[in-house]
Amino acid sequence: MPQQKNALSELGWKHFFQQQMSLEELETTTPVRVFALNRHLVDGVGETGRQKFSLPHAWLRYSVEELPTVGDWMLIDYDGQPLRLLERVSLFKRMASGRDARVQLMAANVDTLFIVTSCNADFNLSRLERYLAMALDAGVEPVVVLTKVDLITDVETFRTKARTLRHDLAVEAVNSRDASVIETLRPWCSKGQTVALAGSSGVGKSTLVNTLSAADVQETGATREGDAKGRHTTTSRSLHILPAGGLLLDSPGLRELQLSDCEEGVASLFEEIEAVARNCRFNDCRHQGETGCAVAEAAENDELDPRRLSNYLKLIAEQARADETLVEKRRKDKDFGKMYKRVQNQKRKEKG
Ligand SMILES: Nc1nc2c(ncn2[C@@H]2O[C@H](COP(=O)(O)OP(=O)(O)O)[C@@H](O)[C@H]2O)c(=O)[nH]1
Ligand SMILES: [Mg+2]
Ligand SMILES: [Zn+2]
What we know:
A six-stranded mixed beta sheet has the order 10-9-8-11-13-12, sandwiched between helices. The chain has a five-stranded antiparallel beta sheet with strand order 3-2-1-4-5. With about 350 residues, the chain is α/β, with parallel strands linked by helices. The termini are far apart. The protein is built from eleven helices and 13 strands. Magnesium ion binds next to helix 6.
């Protein structure tokens, strides 16, 4: 956590945030970026360095999305009291695991998501597609980072395959253990740019984080083997300034991202299928054998790539299940709210 003065732009401040401030706010408040967060305790960094503060009691009533998460920008007054949260350029959220389906914020104001995959058995187009959908939905630029290129001879095959997922998709190949990674990824890691990493276990995310940080900030598969006790503690969600000037948003939860609320991301990623689906007889067609399903017809005529179609169907089914759980949860919340009110009214009556 830096103690020295920072220019706001080094912390990721952009015109987009500046223009949300009123004249009065420009005079009476200062922006602070959330570097870490522990319940209602915020660890922020602003122009004058580190700023720690608690969220006001009244904020307990706020909905999940109105509360700050790592990467957010907040305005605080000169007494160090938080006034409000600024609108985000991007937001990763997920459904909390377990039966208690609840939206959980993972990271805000990330510019680039490094989708990490290794050039071996882990490489899987449908899995990449899933991460891509999430990046697009969050409003974040995706960059595919192929790791372990030092272990293979034909990196072009992997590169070409990854590029089939989306036109203009940036694909970089690296050896995560080599310092040259910093040069390869510099376009996304320089001053004021915020990056996050996602990808399945073992692909080299922690190794990348360590190389980019020029320090052993994270436990990797390699250190685990060497030191079973694990000297390195697993980091919780937090923001770090990299030697290259960029900000790394480290969020373990991003790895297990589910597809809640990724509808737009899925739609934009599977444009060719969505275009066909618009001709289905029913608006809510799930393309599971309904009459007049244009997608089924196109598939029969070999007009759609079977792998992409099957992944698309899987993702929208998953999406539908996530939505159902959310709706159910919101209904229960509402019922609970009604019951709470009833009980309170009852109490008041009994008192009065
Ligand atoms: N040869 C080689 N090994 C790598 C590379 N990236 C990661 N590894 C190794 O792969 C294993 C898993 O890496 P780790 O960073 O822990 O993966 P994570 O689970 O995604 O965080 C470790 O033993 C790393 O040393 C790479 O680019 N080349
Ligand atoms: Mg790791
Ligand atoms: Zn259909």
